[in-house]
Design goal:
Pathway: Cofactor biosynthesis; riboflavin biosynthesis; 5-amino-6-(D-ribitylamino)uracil from GTP: step 1/4. The chain has eight helices and seven strands. The protein has 211 residues and is α/β, with parallel strands linked by helices. Strands 1-2-3-5-4-6-7 form a seven-stranded mixed β-sheet, with helices on both faces. Helix 4 packs across helix 5.
Length: 211
């Protein structure tokens, strides 16, 4: 017990607190859901693991920020739900992997402020302009604490499913070796085309702009 307490106070263990795990049957397969609390903010995050995680080779992972509108309500305003579904399918097809579901709604501004930002977008602002008009940065999310979750699985090398260079840079700075970036280009449609173009133009996401 003393050893556990000492480890819990050391980096990266002090970043998160593990709570519990349980089976999560889904249409595409049965995942294991692991609950964590981010100690700095008190936010509750979830990791979904599938198959046997072999830490002797790079593990296929996804850092997915919560998006109620896209993930649960099937909104076409963003590509989040499409990316979530594809990432989980990729993990199953690969045979193993981990998806970190992070409670950072609306690029970190929260659900109600996201609705306010949507209203500004309805009036003509793009996603970055809407956040800034509300007094927020374009992207308020942090990924540093993810090292604590990955360390729980013993993961130090990853194949990261993302189009976002900030995620690659954040894991690299946290001493997680990103050996490969796996593109995740899903769900472009007339309702989110401008949204995706702004991601590429203003936030540096690795996406092609389509007029």
């Amino acid at each position: 017990m003393q050893v556990r307490e000492e480890l819990a106070s050391q980096h990266p263990h002090q970043l998160v607190r593990y709570v519990e795990s349980a089976q999560l049957p889904m249409d595409m397969g049965t995942f294991t859901m692991h609950g964590f609390v981010e100690k700095k903010t008190g936010k509750e995050h979830v990791a979904l693991s599938y198959g046997e995680i072999d830490t002797n080779k790079p593990v296929l992972i996804r850092l997915h920020s919560e998006c109620l509108t896209g993930d649960a309500l099937f909104s076409l305003r963003c590509d989040c739900g499409f990316q979530l579904n594809k990432a989980l399918k990729n993990i199953v097809e690969h045979g193993s992997g981990v998806l970190l579901y992070l409670r950072q709604e609306g690029r970190g501004i929260g659900l109600l402020n996201k609705i306010r930002a949507y209203h500004l977008q309805d009036e003509g602002a793009d996603t970055v302009e809407a956040n800034e008009k509300l007094g927020f940065a374009a992207d308020m999310r942090s990924y540093d604490f993810c090292k604590g979750i990955l360390h729980y699985f013993g993961i130090n090398e990853v194949k990261l499913m993302t189009n976002n260079p900030r995620k690659v840079n954040s894991l690299t700075k946290a001493s997680i070796n990103v050996v490969e970036r796996v593109p995740l280009r899903e769900g472009r449609n007339p309702y989110n085309n401008n949204y995706l173009n702004i991601k590429a133009r203003k936030l540096g996401h690795m996406l092609d702009e389509i007029v």
